[in-house]
Amino acid sequence: MILAIVIGVAAALEDGGGKKDGANKSAAATASAEPSATSAPTATGSAAAEVITPQNNPEFAALLTTDSCDNANQDFATKYRGRTVAFDGSIVHMAPHGDYDTRYDFLLGPGDKGPNTGIGPAFKYEDVNTLDLKLTGRNIPATVRAGDRFRLVAEVGEFNAKQCIFFLDPVSTEIQ
Predict the structure, then answer these.
(1) CATH topology of domain 58-175
(2) Residue 134 — very low, low, confident or very high, per pLDDT cuts 50/70/90?
(3) Which position among 41, 111, 129, 139 has the lowest Cβ density within 10 Å, counted as fewest Cβ atoms?
């Protein structure tokens, strides 16, 4: 059977596409559709390469390891607003958002110390439910709580200098 397929493909290639019937037209349409399908992963791949991490961005690495609320925070938020960051972090605190029972405000910190986090800026996911966290990884829990550790991937929002809080929008949250 494999031999028959190889012979069929070779015969089609030998023909050189000289026939102008409907079969060749649909084959050409399929072939022209394939490059756009393959170009989408390439675009996604390049977007993934642009994720800001402490390993590829010294500014971000410095923010995650200091406890000051200076202009570097505002500068980073302004420069990278709308860009994606990824870092290992934990839930420092979570509280219901307003009067909601299933929507929360999450205060997040770099590292794995949860409520005992003492370095880095405070990051906040505001008005999200646990489905918005887009949990991935092994053993996804039914609930999350303060102290849980994650690989956080999020979009940079604004920085509130009065509260010294970075607002982020979750992209994905990998269980650690």
Answers:
(1) OB fold (Dihydrolipoamide Acetyltransferase, E2P) (2.40.50)
(2) very high
(3) 139
